[in-house]
Amino acid sequence: MPFSKNTQSVRKAVIPAAGLGTRFLPVTRAVPKALLPVLNKPLIHYVAEEAAASGIREVALILGPGMDAVAEYFTDQPILESTLRQRGHTDLLHEQRGISDLVDITVIIQHTPHGLGHAVLLAKEFIGNETFAVLLPDDLIWGNTPAIEQILAVRKRYGGSVIGAREVPLDLVSKFGIIDGHLLESGVFEVKRLVEKPKPQHAPSNIAIVGRYVLEPRVLDHLANTKPGAGGEVQLTDAIAAMIGESPVHACAVEGRHADAGVPAGLLQAALYEARKDPALREAVMATVAAWQQDNIAS
Ligand code: G1P
Predict the structure, then answer these.
(1) Is there a contact between 212 and 136 (Cβ–Cβ < 8 Å)?
(2) Helix, strand, coil % in the chain, rounded to nearest 5
(3) What are the tens digits of pLDDT across the range 128-160?
(4) Which class in CATH covers the domain with range 12-262?
(5) Residue whose CA is at the smallest distance from ligand 1 atom 13
(6) Would you call the peptide bond into 26 cis, given omega within 30 degrees of 0 as the criterion?
(7) Model pLDDT for residues 13-26, shown as the tens digit of each residue
(8) Which pLDDT value is given to residue 6?
(9) Which sequence spans correspond to the domains of the chain?
(10) Which residue of 116, 135, 180, 263 sits with most ligand 1 atoms within 8 Å of its CB, as the best mutation to test the pocket?
(11) Secondary structure E strands in 36-171
C-alpha cells in the first residue's frame, strides 16, 4: 500500500499508568505506582518532562480507579504556592509552578486491568486521527537527547510508526516485546515481526521494545480487533505487529542509560543515576558502597 511520509509534528502522548504496582507492595496499597519517587520526583514527572521537552504537551493519563493523586500532581497547589511566596522562596515557587504548566492532562480511567493495548485504546477519542506518542513511566532513560525525541527523529526520516528498542540479555527476553528486524543504518531497524514476551528459545533476537512509541492512529483499528495475547492481556505489541506490511514500522535503538523502574532494583538504580547529579548525594552513595565493602570484608 502506498503511504505518504506524513511527518507532521506529534502533539499528543498517551501515558498508561493504571498498573497496580504489585511488585512494590505494600507502598502501592496507598500510593499509585506512577507516584513512586526517584529521589524527590515521581516516575510520572520524568515521562511528562520528556514529552514536554520533545514538544508534546497534550497528554492522556490512563489511570486506575482511585489514582486521582497522579493527576493532582500536575495541578496548582495554592496553599503550597502562597506559603512559598510568603517565605520568599522564589526559585522553588517558580519550579513548582512549572510542574502544573508542563503538560495539559486529560484523565482516562481504565476500570479493569486488561493490558497495555486496552489502555491505549481507551484514549481513542483523545488521539483522534493524529500520530501520537506512548511513554511508559516504568522505563526511565537518561540520554543526551530525550528518548521520545530520538524516536521522532527516526520517524521524520522514515515516516510511519517507530518504536524504541534496546538490547537485553537473552535470558530476559520473556519480559519484553521482542523485535525481528533488519538493520537499515546504525540504530535503525525495519521491523519484520514482533513477539510479545517470547520464551528465549522462540525469541527472534535480543532486541527488546522499550516503553517509547510513536504510532500512527491506524494502530487503534488494529487494537480494536486484537484478542488477548501474552498474559491474557490485550497487547499493544500485537496491534503494532498487525500494522507491519500495511504501513512502515521501524525501531530506533534508544541512546542513553536505562532503568526499569517497574521493579524495585530498577527504581533503586534510577535513584542512583539521578544521585550522580548532586555532589552531596554522590558522596552519600560512595560512602554507603564503601561501608558495604567494609562489611563484606568484615563478615
Ligand atoms: C510492556 C510492553 C513490552 C515492552 C515493555 C517495555 O510490557 O508490552 O512489549 O517490552 O513494556 O518496558 P510490560 O512491562 O508492561 O509487561
Answers:
(1) yes
(2) 40, 25, 35
(3) 999 999 999 999 999 999 999 999 999 999 999
(4) alpha beta
(5) 176
(6) yes
(7) 999 999 999 999 99
(8) 54
(9) 12-262
(10) 116
(11) 37-38, 41-42, 58-63, 104-109, 132-135, 139-142, 161-167
